[in-house]
Amino acid sequence: MQVSSKTPAPTSKKRSAGEGDEDHAGWYCVETDPFPCPAPGCSFVAQFMTAAHLVLVWQERDDPNLLRHAQRAKEVGRNPRVVTYEATFGPSASYYAWEAAGRPVHGIRGKT
Predict the structure, then answer these.
(1) Maximum distance among all alpha carbons in the chain?
(2) For labelling alongside 36, which of 43, 48, 74, 102 has CA 20 to 30 A away?
(3) Per the domain annotation, does 93 fall within a domain?
(4) How many domains, the chain?
(5) For residues 53-82, b (16+ Cβ closer than 10 Å) or e, as one string?
(6) If you average pLDDT over every residue of the chain, what do you get?
């Protein structure tokens, strides 16, 4: 898959997580070497940092949480690359909206 690494032109309207606008084109995500979903019996293979099979996106390329997650992916050998998100990558979720929702993930039980 060819991924554009060009930085998009700045937009005049800044969106915030949870605003309801699902158009994350031009935001940033972390592409990685393919890795399987950890849920038992799930055949999904991710090529991006995901949560519940949604590509996590950040509005700023230098967001500290984006960089922290990319560093963690590097530490476990997933060869991370920060790229500009495109809708063709699959459904997305703002990292901060995901965090505000309690960080749901597919097939992993939360702490009780």
Answers:
(1) 44
(2) 102
(3) yes
(4) 1
(5) bbbbbbbeeebeebbebbeebeeeebebbb
(6) 80
